Amino acid sequence: GSITGVVTDKATNDKIPFANVLLIPENNTAFVNGTVSDKDGNFYIDNLTFGNFNVVISFIGYKPDTIKNINIDKQNQQVNIGEIQLSAFTVALDEVVVKDWAKTVTTNLDLVTYRTQDFQTTKGGNAANVLNKLPSVSIDADGVISVRGTPDFMVYLNGKPTHMEPSTMLSQIRATNIESIDIITVPSAKYDAQGKGGIINITTKKTGGKGLSISASGLIGGAPWGNYTHQLSNYNMNDNRFGGGLNFIYSKNKLSLYGGLNFNEKNVNGTRSGFASLLQENGSYYHMVPNGVRPEWSENYTANVAMDYQLNNKSIISASYFYGNSAKGRSALYNYHTFCGDV
User: Fold this and answer.
1) Separation of alpha carbons 42 and 39, rounded Å
2) pLDDT for 2 beyond 80
3) Residue 218 falls within a domain, yes or no?
4) Model's pTM, two decimal places?
5) Is the pLDDT of residue 207 over 90?
6) What CATH number corresponds to the domain at position 12?
């Protein structure tokens, strides 16, 4: 036989996901079977033998509830116990002072949502710069992005999976175009089976209202006073950084169109020095002293367009297209001073 039901909050009627559901024989305290409710609060227990059972439902912050004397027999093999409403625990306090602050972080079980507008230092960067400020996310010197120490994770854009390389995808989305970022550091079993270390969902900005809205942004920076031409290679050394974007949103009745063009270019000057020694057969040492510069550069260009059409209050048809191109490089311009001698 089987038992089904749904777990809700008694005060708000909201569904309660991941509630514990235990099945216990009516005249015994031994645990027989159990499960947890899904994201919509529904649960299902099957492969049950005939008999009388009690179902105990519990969740953190709520009072447990027990549904008693559920009979499963030949004539009543599939039992739906309907809606089980849990009441929240209440604690009486002498005095409570409430201060209202806009949430930077919203936590819901294994989902953490960050509002990117609160990260002021990343406004001139891209999605990777924002992620580098978040817990459980790290970016190494080569730009490889890891969640919980592993680079094997999934990237979603506006709730839809993408098939681009994650580090490339994140480098092509400007921080100013991001509304929020969801980090799922404990994926469900279906993601673990694919070896995924985490899930990142990036939600881009959309504005409400009717009519046409156009926004433009620009970025310029660096240290132009430090630019120079390398004497030996004639290479143009510079720290210039600039970018910009043009985005639009058009809304009328049930139709919404939005899209944009964005670009970002970054140059970074670097230096290198070192010392190496090689022991020769005659017992003397051959010394090498490298000294020079190692400039790096990167370019990112993106274009996106999307459409939403609201069929009714519960259904929306969406279509979107995203194109991005990313390039980066590094040069090494070294002078080597060599000489022989003892250490």
Assistant:
1) 8
2) yes
3) yes
4) 0.41
5) no
6) 2.60.40.10
